[in-house]
Amino acid sequence: MQRPGPDSTASHDGSPYHHGDLRRALIAAGQTLLAEGGPSGVSLREVARAAGVSHNAPYRHFESREALLAAIATDGFERLSDRIAATEANANDIDRLIATGRAYITFAIEVPSLYRLMFSSEVRKAAFPALGAAADRTYAQLTAALPSSPATPRGVTLGAWALVHGFADLLTSGQLSDDLQGKLREEAIDHMLRAYARGAAR
What we know:
Order of helices and strands: EEHHHHHHHH
Number of helices: 8
Structural class: mainly alpha
CATH topology of the largest domain: Tetracycline Repressor, domain 2
Strand order of the largest sheet: 1-2
């Protein structure tokens, strides 16, 4: 039997399991498990099972469960950053802030379990530099989207973040009525951020 090479690992039946990017496959499997059962449902063993590889295979890429969760959260921030970047090309001034807020909130609604993990205490950003850097990039995008203001930049940014993050949390935790969807939700985001930007500019 052919022995697994550096880019392959043994499958459950003992045959070589070839995968172009095992790390990416494990992260994707982890995200599926996260959506199905929350962080408690994500383990190295379960991720290996879901990816169809041996239970030792994940240890080639993740030394612990927390490292796996950190990688999943990092991927989440990178996806959110890409989502925000895609909106910036067609927006300017206050519209840019509104587009950024919409991208942030829509992302949270689409993948609530991933969104909650990204900001949870399950993973320590200080312990995983890649995660901290990805989170910082997203925060920098929010800062860049704010109209110029004489107020303290950090305070203005924190206020805007609190608005979009708080609204996203209310939506994903079911604290708002079910009718706040579609156009009504877009109007709420628009009103909230437009009023904030005008106040900050003063």
